[in-house]
């Protein structure tokens, strides 16, 4: 009851105690999953895991699921079966994960949202969040590990720049965009939670003229 009165007074959701915030947010999902999209190094896997813990939802990483199903690492899949095979697995794994009854937090691989069928499914079954990051931030993060076959080129920065040009207009279709800045993971997490609240709990526009 108190909650209702607070809402009627237009008080911001951020003034609620954390447990109550999370409960409200999870309820507002109404069964939809939260799907993180964006470039390699944006923090989809790292922030997604934390977001799931925060909201009490299961976390799934499409890349991990593909690796488990294939019993091979992503670089091995690209090397032995090729990118087209990987993309087909990726599309099918995401469809399977989004078909489950309970909502999940799903970290996709950077190329997944480029598939039209996958985008349509995400729009139907989930709330999409584009974790957007500047080129230099992405570069600093992806430089640490040689686990991304698409970046095993003579000039990974130029490759990343080209992928950004190609993909950002499509990522922009996501429901919510959050800047994944060069700050602590938990700060990005807070911004994701805030952006989700703004998207899901925002007041309905007044219909009267
Ligand atoms: N906000 C952040 N601050 C610092 N490092 C981050 C942040 N988000 C992600 N990272 C780091 O960047 C690297 C890539 O993150 P990851 O979650 O694997 O990205 P993605 O799944 O989008 O490719 C990881 O080492 C991760 O810990
Ligand atoms: O951007 C891409 O096409 C890819 C991103 C990777 O996932 P992350 O975005 O989690 O690094 C992984 O799916 C694969 O290496 C291809
Ligand atoms: Mg990832």
Strand order of the largest sheet: 2-3-1-4-5
Query: CATH homologous superfamily name?
Result: P-loop containing nucleotide triphosphate hydrolases
Helical residue percent band = 40-55%
- Strand tally: 5
- CATH architecture, by name, is 3-Layer(aba) Sandwich
Low-confidence stretches: 1-12
Order of helices and strands: HHEHEHHHEHEHHEH
Tell me the count of domains: 1
Q: What portion of the residues fall into strands of 2 or more residues?
A: 5-15%
- Biggest beta-sheet profile: 5 strands, parallel
Any ligands, ions or cofactors bound here, and which? Answer: adenosine-5'-diphosphate, shikimate-3-phosphate, magnesium ion
Oligomer designation: single chain
Structural class per helix/strand content?
alpha/beta
Helical region count? 10
- The CATH topology: Rossmann fold
Q: What CATH first level would be assigned?
A: Alpha Beta
Radius of gyration using CA atoms only: 18 Å
Q: How would you describe the shape?
A: globular
Whole-number mean pLDDT: 91
Rounded to the nearest angstrom, the distance between the terminal CA atoms is 30 Å
Catalytic activity: shikimate + ATP = 3-phosphoshikimate + ADP + H(+)
GO molecular function: kinase activity
Pfam family, one: SKI
Organism: Labrys monachus
